[in-house]
């Protein structure tokens, strides 16, 4: 099996982003591309952000506390040792190893067309099964 297929640096994972960009331009020109960019850059801040930003650190802290209590060696955590690197690591993961390269194609472009034919549930299930 080719390990480069599972690498975060696999260029093929940018396929949905490139395809969505090209198809959006072909279907509607610059105006439609601008609309797609507005859609993916729109964010809503709600109360659900509170648990999203608290739960993961609480779990990590709880696991570290359990390790200290039980006498196990605590793992070395690279991110908290250099807090200035966290925003850079986030940006790197988001743009090169995370959702941007797939979500623009699947949720930003394909989902809209699927929902014109099928229900929200069926459209989401089709995308989830295909990915």
TrEMBL record:
- Annotated membrane-spanning segments are 47-71, 77-97
Taxonomic classification, please?
Archaea, Thermoproteota, Methanosuratincolia, Candidatus Methanomethylicales, Candidatus Methanomethylicaceae
What are the protein's UniProt keywords?
Membrane, Transmembrane, Transmembrane helix
Q: Which species expresses this protein natively?
A: Methanosuratincola subterraneus
This protein is called what? Uncharacterized protein
